[in-house]
Design brief:
290 residues; 14 helices; 2 domains; two-stranded antiparallel ribbon; 45% helix
Length: 290
Amino acid sequence: MTKPNFMMIGVAKAGTTSFFRYLDEHPQIFMCEIKATNYFGYEDARDWKWADEGDAPLLQNFPVRTLEAYEAVFDKATNETAIGEVSPQYFRCPTAARRIHEYVPNAKLVLSLRNPADRAFSGFMMRTRRGEPVKGFYDELTLNSSHVKEGFYYKRLKRFLDLFPKEQIKIYIFEEFKKNAAGTVADLYDFLGVDTSFTPDTSVKYNPGAVPKIRLFNKLFYNPRLIDMTKSVFPESMQGMFKQIRELNLTASPKMPPDLRAELLNIYRQDILKLEDLLGRDLSIWRNTN
């Protein structure tokens, strides 16, 4: 039985898909084929009781639900140095840190943190992209909304730091990753103990922000049952064609109104300051309201 020796635990909308692809390119890294098994957060999602931390995660985002199924996703690993997975829900599920520690206490953990105001807006736009019914920016992005609650990182990160030594946790800032993806990935390779001379194709940006031209179409394209049926019935070439059609229905996301961004950053200000103390790291890059 092979267990993972590293995990990327979040956060959602902070480049985790790109990290997953760049990790998967490395010949010394085995990546679980399922991006976001979210296994260690499933029990929380199934019995959510943390309303102060946001709405319950959708169970459809937890495809691996038993230990047997989780262990099976690593069956194909051979002699790779680093064996891992990317599951953004781990950071927001309150007992995931404990469950991970009980299973693989020596695992290295990787985290990408994004300006919480921008992350909240991106999460809201993702719902729009999927064709879900949504209200306007100002109605959806309030202190009581789940999108906003998910941006209070301090408490969530402390759960992991209370259990795992700091040297086992690598934290990246999404805005810095965007500016220097190649350098960030090389540093991550070094953290995982694999060949840092390998160069992935970081020119490809995965899962960029976008909204549908026709919302009804994307509501169908993102329907989990339809996706599962497509995968089971149609060959991979046809699946790629459906994905291309879905992409053609997308256009660039609108910008967040500056006054709303400033309001959100004011909400997050104290949490950012606490996070700076926890990490011993300057996060002034997030406090810019422009």
